[in-house]
Write a structure and sequence with these properties.
Layout (H helix, E strand, L loop, with lengths): L8 H23 L16 H13 L7 H10 L8 H10 L2
Helix pairs in contact: 1-2
């Protein structure tokens, strides 16, 4: 057991991105379906099992409602003070040396 090596965080991040991209591709196959006979966009119903996989992936990654992050940003925007640009702060401190 001592010889077991752990996957690097970069490798795990890559696998996570691949899983997300694969799920997105599967969903898009249905939602962006182009009928080869008509040449028209004809979205298909996404199978419930695929939707369940997507929902589990999102839940496992802390995403439980669309727009939650935007709403949080909007809510915080009015309650936080205006902060100076970090570049200005750095330039000001560097000017003292």
């Amino acid at each position: 057991m001592a010889n077991e090596r752990r996957a690097s965080s970069d490798m795990l991040d890559e696998l996570h991105a691949l899983q997300a991209a694969t799920l997105m591709g599967q969903v898009k196959r249905y939602t962006e379906y182009h009928n080869p006979e008509t040449g028209k966009l004809e979205p298909q119903e996404v199978p419930p099992a695929l939707l369940a996989q997507v929902a589990k992936f999102l839940k496992d990654n802390g995403v439980d409602s669309p727009g939650r992050g935007q709403k949080l940003r909007d809510d915080l925007k009015g309650s936080l003070p205006d902060l100076p640009d970090p570049a200005d702060v750095v330039a000001e401190h560097l000017g003292h040396y």
